[in-house]
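Write out the 3D structure for:
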Amino acid sequence: MLGAALGALGGVAAASALGWASMDARSQLFGRTFIGRDDVAGRKFIALTYDDGPNDRCTLPLLDVLAKHGARVTFFMIGSYVAARPEIARRVAEAGHEIGNHTFRHPNLIGCSPARVRSELEQCRAALRDAVGEHSRWFRPPFGGRRPDVLAVVRALGMEPVLWRVSSRDWVLDARAIEEKVSRGLRGGDVILMHDGSHRGMEWDRGNTVKATDALIPRLRDGGYEFVSVGEMKATSTTETQRHRAGHE
């Protein structure tokens, strides 16, 4: 009986661990995903990323804030929203920001068949190509949810999964709390999760995120941080980082 009880507890623990691995952005158990760089000592650069746009209410005001501060970031867009508001997606691209794939309808991919996963990615990619032409190969799963077969489909389509190391929790926090949440515990090489939209609707209010971004950029720059896109962070070689570090010793 004791053996059976221990076995049952082991099964619960295993299921819990697998559930964590499928949803926690930092987990690499089901396959490698990009959440930041660990070899950037001396650089202190971070990548701000924004999910769930384009958003009628907040994407353009956010672009104004980013332009004011001269910061380049990465947007992960929902394909159905892009198809409905291609002009906003074009404004993002024209401003020089990266755009990544965030599926067409924002399902939790853990519950989707490989065929549905492929369809979601391909439809979003088509919507983005119609709106802005060629874009990045970056893909972010909704809610961070993935399984090994989800990541296999992503890579088969030539995309690379990007999650995050720091979450702003901007869907529940006010602007000041978002600023404090992101600022605490940062290190060079972090990818930051924020939102300019919501899967719940195209006009969702993300004003707190816009305000927090306006405050965060100068605050973190004063602390020596550089703002880069995901592509710029990934492209920075270890050799370049070592050269930069040596120049400041």
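Residues 2-23 form the longest helix (22 residues).
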